[in-house]
Structures are given as C-alpha cells and as structure tokens.
Design goal:
3-stranded mixed sheet; 79 residues; YefM-like fold; 3 strands; Antitoxin_Phd/YefM; alpha+beta; 4 helices
Length: 79
C-alpha cells in the first residue's frame, strides 16, 4: 500500500480528494510542522491491522494466561 504525507493545511483544503485516495487503498499521513500527527486509512485495512495485531499478541504471549481466547469469543476453535 502506498503512503503519502501531506501537511495539515493541505489536508484541510483537499479533504475530499484525500478521502477518495484513501477509498482506493492509499494511506495518507497528515503532518503538522513536519511531524506526523494522524493517518487516514481505509476501514478494511484498519480491521485487518487489528486482527494481525491480535495474532501477534497471541504469539508473543505464548503460554501466558490472559483470560479468554479471543477466538472463543467469536465462536472459533483455538489453534
């Protein structure tokens, strides 16, 4: 996925165009005075990122008991 950086003023001025680019799958990083302060991401990507993060936490946790397995909450069989 392509990522582009834009300043806050440009983001405000061209929000509609930026949203169209995000809908097509692009990630937009909004900066203020050259520092990243926000990201515009497609919704589907955010959900996939959340699931990937949950998987990484399960791998990192190994044998740690952190409560209910998230898969059980969704009716899936744990691996």
């Amino acid at each position: 996925m392509r990522s582009t950086s834009v300043g806050a003023f440009e983001a405000k001025t061209h929000l509609s165009a930026l949203l169209e680019r995000v809908e097509r799958g692009e990630e937009i990083v909004i900066t203020r005075h050259g520092r990243p302060v926000a990201r515009l991401l497609p919704i589907a990507r955010s959900a996939a990122d959340a699931q990937a993060a949950a998987e990484r936490l399960l791998q990192i946790g190994g044998d740690l008991a952190l409560g209910r397995d998230w898969r059980a909450l969704h009716g899936e069989e744990p691996h």
